[in-house]
Amino acid sequence: MGKRGILLCELSNGWELSSTSSYTPTAWIDCAQVESDRAAKTIAEATLAFAKSNSLDTSQVLLTVASDSVLFATIPGTNFDAIKTNQALRFELESLLPCDAEGIVADSIEAPRGSKQNSIAAVALETAHLESIVKALEEAQFKIQFIVPRSMLAFEQASIEKLLPASSVSLWVMRAGSDALRVEVLATDSNRLPIAWQLCDLDPVSIEQNIRILNSDSLPIFVVGSLQDTELLSSSIRLEHQAINQDLSALSKKRAARLLTSGEEPWIDLRRDVLASQDPWRRHRASIGRLAIAVCIFFAVACGTFVWRATHYQSLANQYKNKQEDIFRETFPGQRVPAAILARLKSEYAKAKGVRSTDTATDSPESALLILRKIIESFSKDFPFEVLDIRIENNRLAMDIELLTQQDAGKIAAALAGQGFRVEPPATTLVDGDRIRATLIGAYSAKENNLSNNSDSRALR
Amino acid sequence: MNILRNQLPIVAMFVTGAVLTIISWSFYRNAHASADSAAEVYAESLRLSSDLERFRNSPRIASLEVEPPDRIAARVSGAAKEANLSPLAILSVDPQLPVRVNRTDYQIRATQVVLQNTSLAQIAGFVASLEDASSGMIVRDLSMNRSTLVGENDSELWNVRLTLTQMIFSPISTR
């Protein structure tokens, strides 16, 4: 169970300290005994001492102001969009109430969504009344959650518990101090929200006059308060009414406890502007909290997703590495897998390409044996000739032959061309008057003739 | 100051969350890049492996190392024996120093062999025995002159000068 919050209630001549629990004894600060400039500090010190002695939560403070410290107004009309901001509301109230817009804090009661609203009920408080007290409490590390008119807490709780019917006029007999009694006349609409609120002395004539002004629609009248107080009032007014006995202090505490623990907003909250200068984000704390949670969830989800994807990619990288090792083992069976597999493969590839590939920067020489075989195959038995010498150098051929006719030289050249040689026209010379000496020059390329060295060499053998 | 002090836990939480998110994002990005790189390396390895397999079925055109002089002499003697050549028919065996082929990754080592009075069949047998594709050895140049002598059954004999070349793959830099 959490610690109890602190209720700091302004009464007619002092402040009452209590907690949200009814078991905590109340304390009383009599401001009449204190100098006015010391009052705020005295209240803060007394509240601190009260909180310590009763183990109360200093971060849960609800400050209530006396009904005679606030001003109530009903803003008629339909153009409510113009007074959506709090600043606009203050200036609107300036024309209705005897106060300056710069010197008050104000709040209005919002009707439930979807319901038709003919007027706005607003409450204003002069900032000078509480500014020094709020500052002193904040300096003493108290966290004031709400500043609410005291009677409003009881009205709200009565509305939540539906103690009164919708659209009614009620007379609330309140104790403004240790012995002073006040009557607060409250008119509510069909949503059980205040549409009029007036403070009267305990004078039957004054009360009846106020009721007649407020109750033009002849709404049912109720008297709410303790048994003793309701009997006192019931006997003095002549209007038809119904008495409802309630401990108004308990009703207020119940609502206060609810506000401090549930995160609900009161109808009227005057903890704003000058009275919340130390904690301007207080009203948005819930939204900021939700945003913070959303951002945290985003961070957590993002981190989780990134880590999950990273793990997936790491697994993928390992799979590729294993496959690469398998490739190496298949390519080089029995060899130890090196750390730099790709470098080793590249090195082996470069060697293999250099040793075995024909697609290299240099033309590899042909075997002279292959060319010799081609020359021999080109020789014809149809005419006599004699080979004097054969020179094969790097695929080029030069051959001296002796023949009987010049035409035979041409035939041999043609036969060589038929074997794939590129042969120049043979040069012939007459030797010893009866023989012709021819020199045949040509070149051979196995690549061009699409032949294999090995097969041809083997054939010659 | 009071407000700042009150908001400090929230600010610290946001900063911590943001830092953790950035760290995890960095972790994710690195892993992503690593996986991409691994995939590329795998694809490259697959391609190289496939090419290596293809090269294995191709004939060799070069050797990876220069054949030492004693091996050349043994190779010539073996080939002569194979071709039924008399040791007297081999006039000279002259291995040269390896020479780089232009600006390529290849060197050529030439060995000049001079034979005398050999028949065409012996020349063919000798050359065929000398050549060895697995070590990049072929007879590139062959110069044959008719000998003044004749062989058995008046067969032609030749004086031969041949150049046995060995192609060596010798890259200057592997990078």
Q: At the first level of CATH, what is the class of the largest domain in chain A? A: Alpha Beta
Largest interface: A-B, 73 and 70 residues
CATH fold node name of the largest domain in chain A? Nucleotidyltransferase, domain 5
Q: Low-confidence stretches of chain B at least 5 residues in length (pLDDT < 50)?
A: none
According to DSSP, the number of beta strands of chain B is: 5
* Helix content estimate of chain B: 40-55%
**Structural category of chain A:** alpha+beta
CATH homologous superfamily label of the largest domain in chain B? Ribosomal protein S6/Translation elongation factor EF1B
* CATH uppermost class of the largest domain in chain B: Alpha Beta
Radius of gyration of chain A: 56 Å
Main beta sheet of chain A, described? 5 strands, mixed
The largest β sheet of chain B comes out as: 5 strands, antiparallel
Q: Note the gap between the termini of chain B.
A: 64 Å
User: Given the C-alpha coordinates, what overall shape of chain B results?
Assistant: rod-shaped
Q: What is the CA-CA span between the terminal residues of chain A?
A: 108 Å
Oligomer: heterodimer
Got a strand count of chain A? 18
**Over the alpha carbons, how many angstroms does the gyration radius of chain B reach?**
34 Å
